[in-house]
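Q: Two folds, back to back.
A: First:
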Amino acid sequence: MFGKSMKVALLLGAALLVFAGMAMAANRSINLSKDVVLPDGQSLKAGQYQIVVDEKVDQVQFLQRSQVVLKHRCKCVVPEKPNSSDGVVTQEEPGKKPVLQEIRFKGENRIITLPS
């Protein structure tokens, strides 16, 4: 009886590791077509970035080639319905770089906002 319980526990543990690995592999990414600044003044050059959000500490990380480029505070807001497309929202001001305000991923039920 104990041996059977141990096998089930090991099988469940392995399944959990596989599921967690698949979730990590599904990192979301954005492509910035032009340089932007974050609300706190940090600059992000145009390019492809992986986005990692830690809602427990309200922080978003921007990575390139698995290296953290920068971190910023964030707040995740639940929209009325899942996002219909990937996208970023910037605030444009004449003569200044656009300020990144929001990140959205298709099918997700959250909007990642970047407060100042």
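A: Second:
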Amino acid sequence: MAKMKRRRLSWKPSGSPQVVGYKLYWSEGGAVTYDSQSAPLGNVTAVMLPDDIVSFKPGNGPLKIGLTAVDELGNESDMITVSAPYQFSVPEAPGGLKIESVNDHRNASSPDPENVPTTPEPDMPGSGPVSEAGSAKNVFATDLSVRQLKTV
């Protein structure tokens, strides 16, 4: 299953004592109306989209979202709306993923990492380890992405 960014949709509760829940409406690319796709929400004041609404499966366009308060008889309030300029969709997955075996013999195009020449970097500040002959400084040499510590 793809991973989609979640969005929290929240609102202030209706002041009417007969309200038993809310209803969410949504429409892609056009006005949201009482005939748009919808889902009952229950008596909550926030939902997480798309997680909390199983039927919420919009495509790639911007959304208009509407919300109504619902009373015990199923009557609905006027609809409040908001535009959602972001997408509630995921990109298409890449294709053609494969794993192949390769010839284990090394050739001139793939050098042995043990024999790759290194380029020393400038001395690092600070004191290094002390040997019997006195103090020494650290010099780092790179081997592609591997660093080796040499005492000079």
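Q: And?
A: Residues 123-150 have pLDDT under 50 and may be disordered.
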